[in-house]
Amino acid sequence: MKIAFFDSGIGGLSVLNDAYKALPNESYIYFADTDNVPYGIKSNDDIRELVFDAVNFLAQFQLKALVLACNTATSVVIKQLREQFDFPIIGMEPAVKPATANTTKKVLVCATERTLQEGKLDFLINNLNASERVEKCSLQDLVLYAENFDFHSPDILVYLNEIFGKIDWDNFDSIVLGCTHFIFFKPLFEEILPSHISILDGNLGTVNRLSSLIAPNLSNDQKSPTKFYQSKREVPYIYFDHYIRYLNEI
Ligand code: DGL
Q1: pLDDT tens-digit readout, 110-121
Q2: Residues tagged active-site
Q3: What is the pLDDT of residues 171-213, one digit of tens each?
Q4: What is the distance in A from the centroid of ligand 1 to the CA of 131?
Q5: Among the atoms of ligand 1, which is closest to the Cα of residue 181?
Q6: Separation in Å, CA 67 to CA 16, 22, 76, 193, 224
Q7: Which of 50, 112, 148 to probe ligand 1 with, by most ligand atoms within 8 A of CB?
């Protein structure tokens, strides 16, 4: 049995790469909906239809679990997926809880436009009584830069400086990366943000949840190489390998 990872594109590779380390004997499938990325500017109905289509495709494999390695898809559709499919489905949660836990300063949650508009994020923030301390910021354009394997060009610097230049960082002490594509820009964030700002993401939380869910069912089989799909077309691992190598360098 395999563990499937789904994302609109390459962002979920950052979660898959953490799963490789935590659960090295498992076999994986990675599905990037390359034909339809970015999701963050789409309507809920469109996202729901695309994710259901992909998960129906993935369900033909014997799945031990599905990881929705996409904050946007998690925000819009995880509840309905869990009602429809009987394998465990693990989603992403922006790391607002750890970010707000040990500080009274503000937290900047960066995500796609859709994630920021969805009630799931507000629910999380309100549950933590943190609505006064959390500000939201769309970094939607980073998704397509990441799809083009561009993590450091002058255009990106202009884009980020324009957005971050308006923020009074003295009032903040962390940013939360609420989109899996943004993980690839961590070195750039570290370079341009003031040194007192911590950068948090939800990847480890998701992988820990996956590990505990499949703990009774760990693989003893011969591990098979990861199968990669771009919108239902199987592709060789070299389509994604440079991203994994990049993640291991940063
Ligand atoms: N990687 C995704 C996320 O975590 C989606 C980005 C997009 O397709 O807009 O939200």
Answers
A1: 999 999 999 999
A2: 70, 179
A3: 999 999 999 999 999 999 999 999 999 999 999 999 999 999 9
A4: 23
A5: 1
A6: 9, 14, 15, 30, 18
A7: 112
Q: What is the full DSSP assignment across 52-67? A: HHHHHHHTTS-EEEEE
Please state, in angstroms and rounded to a whole number, the distance separating the CA atoms of residues 61 and 50.
Answer: 18
Instruction: Give me ligand 1 centre to Cα 222, in Å.
Output: 32
Order of all β-strands in the sheet with 227-230: 89-90, 63-68, 2-7, 27-32, 227-230, 233-235
pLDDT for the residue numbered 224 = 92
Q: Tell me the C-alpha distance between 119 and 122, whole Å.
A: 5
Residues spanned by CATH 3.40.50.1860 within the chain?
2-92+204-249, 96-202
Give me the CATH topology for the region 2-92+204-249.
Rossmann fold (3.40.50)
Using the mean position of ligand 1's atoms as its centre, give its distance from the Cα of residue 186 in Å: 16
Ligand 1: list residues with CB < 6 Å: 7-9, 11, 37-40, 70-72, 112, 115, 143, 179-181
Nearest atom within ligand 1 for CA of residue 179: 4
Fold assignment, 96-202: Rossmann fold (3.40.50)
- Distance from residue 212's CA to the centre of ligand 1 (Å): 25
